[in-house]
Here is the input.
Amino acid sequence: MKQIESMLRERIGLDPKSIGATTIHRNVRLRIRALGLPDLNSYTALLLQSSREWRELTESVVITETWFFRERDAFEAAAQLARPESPPSQPGPIWRVLSLPCSTGEEPYSLAMTLLDAGLTPAQFRIDAIDLSQRALERARRGTYGPNSFRGKQLGYRDRHFRPSRDGYVLDKRVRDCVHFRHGNLIDQKCFPFKAAYDCIFCRNLLIYFDRPTRLSAAQNLAGLLKEDGVLFVGAAELPLVEEHGFESTGIPMAFACRPGHPSPIAPPHGPRRFRTDPLPAAPAARARIESPPAGQPSVKAGQPLASFPGGHERDLALAGRLVESGRLAEATAVCEEFLRRSRTSAQAYYLLGIIKDLAGSADAAEYYRKALYLQPGHYDGLMRMATLAAKTGRPDQARNYRLRARRAKLALLGHP
Here is the structure.
């Protein structure tokens, strides 16, 4: 089994510990049984000579879970970056985006819908989408999605860009034509002969499955694919990981966006399109949320009883979460602290306080995450945050352990043994 794990690490960059050795072992046993092979040695020999069987194994271990507009703030930020500085009568260069891994297409299609809704025409941008899984790419090209791809309450895009069918919802051809899918692997240099090609790259929730040397190689490849002032969007747990390898946060609230270090000076306003090199502002909608409360939502002050806010106990922490997402950290802190005055057994309240400390750059964040995990050992987000902190502070073994625990917690929530 060690030889198979080494093959997964060398060929696709997968750190077996990130998904759990038992997951790999289970899938290998299932393949051995399906093929009617006598033992592990026979299967290993087949893997070494059969590209088809290698594809079957990688398909079984690659995680393809995704949904439309996952972590929506990143798409809002991308729309702001993409807006051309020149008027439509004087079109600028095509804005190029890469989504990798693109899985079954929800992420790159979300980008296409965002840009179209922002007023860009298909001629003004190009989205390339790459994934290791051929099966995921086939599903993405079909453009038909079931209810699991549509999560949350903001589903207006579904009415605008999809039509219902017997098999689910079919994406409009206009959106599908904006995305160009192909097979590839981030750590395989041969897949990316082009350099400095992209204004924006979405590479989210992939690096957490790599070991440290592979992350370094991946970060170098990503930096090489970005234009000089390009922006990289990563997953919430991955920003500290890429910062270790020379990327710098843009400062866009809740977008988890960064750029390669040593940015160039700001270009003249009438020169070639470039993006800002100082910390980027929030999108107008997000900025409005930070500067003033949404309509009908009161401002929260420290010490103010939560009973004065609509919703009662069940909605207190939901309110705190929305305040964090909006960048209103002082108010979110007030809500969480008032909640904990009534109940010291809320893992979510401690977790949100940890997020607030993290965003403020405080070393106290870990203590709040630990309290959350003491109360709820299977708190997935808390485990992932601790994994990020452990990786950032040079404790890779602890980081792997937290990621394994997080995966087990997630599987338990999904009803898997």
Observations:
- Residues 290-413 form a domain with the Serine Threonine Protein Phosphatase 5, Tetratricopeptide repeat fold (CATH 1.25.40.10).
- The chain has 19 helices and ten strands.
